[in-house]
Structure formats: C-alpha cells, structure tokens
Amino acid sequence: MSGILMMVIAIVVLGGAYLLYGRYLQKKWGIDPNAKTPAYEYEDGVDYVPADTNVVFGHQFASIAGAGPINGPIQAAIFGWLPVMLWILIGGVFFGAVQDFAAMYASVKNKGRTIGYIIEEYIGKLGKKLFLLFCWLFCILVIAAFADVVAGTFNGFTADAEGIVSKVSANGSVAMTSMLFILEAVALGMILKYAKLNKWINTAIAILMLVVAVAVGLNFPLYITRDIWHIIIFAYVLIACVVPVWALLQPRDYLNSYLLIFMIVGAVVGVFVSNPSCNLAAFNGFNVDGQYLFPILFVTIACGAVSGFHSLVSSGTASKQIKSEKSMLPVSFGAMLMESMLAIIALIAVASFGKGEAAAQGLTTQPQIFAGAIANFLTAIGLPYQLVFTLINLAVSAFALTSLDSVARVGRLSFQEFFLDDDVDEENMSPFLKVVTNKYFATILTLVLAYLLAKVGYAEIWPLFGSANQLLSVLALVACAVFLKKTKRQGCMLWIPMFFMMAVTFTALTMTIIKLSKAFMTTGLTLGTTLQLVFAILLLILGVIVAIQGVKKLVEKRDSKEVTE
C-alpha cells in the first residue's frame, strides 16, 4: 500500500467520523448551546477562564498529543502496518474520541470538575479517593517520561563510540526556540487577556511570534547538557503548574498549536507530493521477538487511538475554559481525530524506510525517524532537509513540553482533591490539611517524585506508563458510562471500549509486574526497578478496585436518585 492511499483512507474515515458519529453523539447526549458553562459560572481567573473555541482547541490538542502519537505507531510497526492502521482508525473513532467527548461533557455538566469528582458523585467517595490516588501516581509517571523525552530533545551534546563530544545544532536550535516560546507565551497571554483584539489579529500575532522564535532558534542554538535540562524543565513545570492558566498555559498551547498544525499539514503535503512506498509487511504475526500483539499493540499505541491521559485534560483543564457546550465537539472529539491523523502520518513515516535504512542515516529514536521521514518527503518540493528536520524536531518537543504543562497541573489538582471533601470547611482546616492542599506543596511533592523517576530514563518508564495510561482510560470510560446512565442518557457506546480495554490493561500490567519482579530478583534493590515495581502494583490494585465499583453501579437497577440534567 502506498503512502497516499493510507492518507486518503485516514482522511475519509476520520473526517466522516466527525461529521457523522460525532454529531450523532452530540444529538444523543443533548448538547445545549444556551446552557451556562462552568467557565462563566465559576470564573476565578486561575483555572476557570472562558476562552474562544480555537484557543481551547489549541490547548486540548497540544496537551493530549505529547510524544505518544509519534512514538507509539513507530514502536508498534514491528507487527506490520495493517494492525497498526486498523487500531489507530477504529480505536481513534470508537474508543478515543468517544472517551474524550464523554469526559469533557460529564465534567461540564458537573461544574467543570475532574473525573475524580464524577466518580464521587455517581459511584461513591471511596471510588473517588482511590481514583485520585491512581491519577496522581499516573501523572508522576507521565511527567517523568515526557520530561526525559524533552531533555533528550534539547540535549546539545553527543558523544561517539570513542567518547569524543560534539555539539548537536538541531537540538540546540530546538532548545532555544522552545525557551523563546515560553517568553512569547507570557506576552501573548497579556495580549489575549487585556488587549481584547479581534481573533484574527490574535492569530496573526501568534504566527508572527512563532516565526520569530524559529528564526532566532535556527541562528542562535542553545547548547546545554541533558542533566541541566532536567533541572530547567522541572523548574519551568513548577512555575507553569501554579500560575493562572491565562498567563502561560492557554497562550503557550495556542502558540504551539499552530506549529503542530503546520507540521501536520506539511507532512500531509509531503506524503501527497512524494507518495512514499510502504516497506513494511502488512502483518508479521501475533508474536514478534517475544512481543505479543495482544496486549502490546493496544498499550503501545495509546495517544493515537485511546488514552486515559486525554480524559484528565478534557475534565481537568479544558472543561473549565469552554465558553459554550457546542464547542465540546470540535475541542474534544475533533482534537482526538486530529491526533489519530498524526499517528497515521507516523506510521507512513516509519514505513517509508527500508530495513536498517533509518539507522544507517543516524536516525535512532522515534522522533528522529519521524522527523527524518518528513524531511525526506518535503525535499521533493525543494525544501532543505536540515531545515525541515530541525523544525519537525521542534514540533515534537513542543508536543511533549505542552503535555508537561497540563499533566503537572492535573497531578497537583488530583493530590489536593484527594484530601478535600464537600464537608471540609476550607476556612477552618487543620494544619495538616492546609499543608497538603497547598498548591505549592502539592506541586513540589509531585515534581520531586517525578524527577527521581525521570533519572531512570524514558525507555525504562514507557512500558509502565503505557499500561497505566490505558487503565486510566478504563476508569474514565466506567465513570462516564455511569454518569450517562444516572442522568438517563444513552451510554452503550462506551461499554465495548470499556470491557475491551479492561482485558488489555489488566493483562499488560500483570505482565509488567512479572517482568519487573524478575528484574528485581536479578539486579537487586535499585531505585529505578523498585519505584517502577511499587507503582505497577499500586496502579493495578487501585485500578481493579475502582473498575469493580464502577461496573457494579453500571449494572445495578435504576433508582429514584437518578435524574435527568
């Protein structure tokens, strides 16, 4: 199959899904464009901040994409292009987009609260407590994995086999541009909040800022070591996690969304111009190098198909910025389908290389393989390879860095919410509660644990992250299904994804625990192995208990407390 044919199939399937299935869900669940959203009802200038649809879409898309839709399909390509493509399209439409839309809808209908509060309201307080603990542990994993990805992308130095150190200009350019993005985001936030300009003028300003940052980055690379970048990134995340969303989170994601969309459009153009051949086999079997298609495929490809992390963004930050309920379809359902398109592009990218060809070109990591392939495609229209390669690397790092902004805030909120109940008097809390619910304490504790785990390395964390991420999607689907049932809305479209992902995640986490236990017995007590094993066991136990509680609520008969919104 050619790259063009893969792209056409994806565009038709995903575009048709938005127009048909998305609108069907919108009508079935009863979206009310006249309803007052939590962004207005609870506006506080920090978390609840009304924003235009394009701004919230930028935040949602930039936050959920991360490194997942690029890394996942490239890693899973060992099974062949056919199972990867089928899971991206089927999972993206019927699993991921439905989950993201349902999570945002449930949150908007419940004061913009997180999935944790949805579970408390419709499943019970114990379920909420366990879920929030699960969510907090998961966020630590995400921060650790993505921080290491970004630090690697920014690392300005490399050493060859003989130990000779040299500078990496592409990484230096990416690092400088990304740092400028942060400064420009603060300025853009001020403009968006106080200047009250026309949205087209805001767009023009954002694009101009983007061009300036890229130009400066290409001409003035910033060379810093990986270890120093770890510290800088965590310091940035600390600040981004506690400042008002309008001051950094919204404008940064808005700014980055244009870079990411330009990258996707450029990649699509490159595919149609160069029409790369597919050098992957359609199917390589159910067991490849000791990796089993089930559950590995469905855990490895998360963000391009279905990802529990998305539900945290949909219900944790984006739902508090929605101006109108009608914006939920493009922001949640639409952003997920856009991410599925990115995953298809990643599949075409890795399929364009023959066996050993990418490694021969010095492309060893998934982001490098992706960037190298897109650069190859766009040379067909005369664009310089090195320029495109640097820009694509910049876009990939932007994905991961914007995800860090959001997930750190969600982790902080989850930790705080764990200690807060409706009956807690926030004016007269005990000293202990005042400390653990303090946003600075919650943020610092979360980031310290994530920093320790990040030193283990991205490659070691990713398998555990994938399993935990997909189990989180199970819990989100359970919570949303119970919400729809309790409010007398149709939720049967969530059942098959929910039970299928249960089978996937419980199998994957059990396999991960067995593998880590063997490593623990072999290597002894090491920080990395111990942390991962503890996290895996806790996540599995918490996930199973919450899932059982939710399913019980789902199958019980309706009671008099169930009401329609």
Structural class: mainly alpha
Relative strand content: under 5%
CATH topology: Amino acid/polyamine transporter I
| Spatial order of strands in the largest sheet | 1-2
Rounded radius of gyration (Å): 22 Å
Mean pLDDT: 86
By DSSP, the count of extended strands is: 4
By CATH, the superfamily comes out as Amino acid/polyamine transporter I
Number of helices: 22
Q: What would CATH call the architecture?
A: Up-down Bundle
Order of helices and strands: HHHHHHHEEHHHHEEHHHHHHHHHHH
CATH class: Mainly Alpha
Could you please describe the fold and organization of this structure?
- The chain starts with a helix and ends in a 10-residue tail after the last helix.
- Strands 1-2 form a two-stranded antiparallel sheet. A two-stranded antiparallel sheet has the order 3-4.
- With 565 residues, the protein is mainly α.
- The longest helix is centred in the C-terminal third of the chain and has 34 residues, at 385-418.
- 73% of the residues lie in helices and 2% in strands.
- The chain has a single domain, classed as Amino acid/polyamine transporter I (Up-down Bundle).
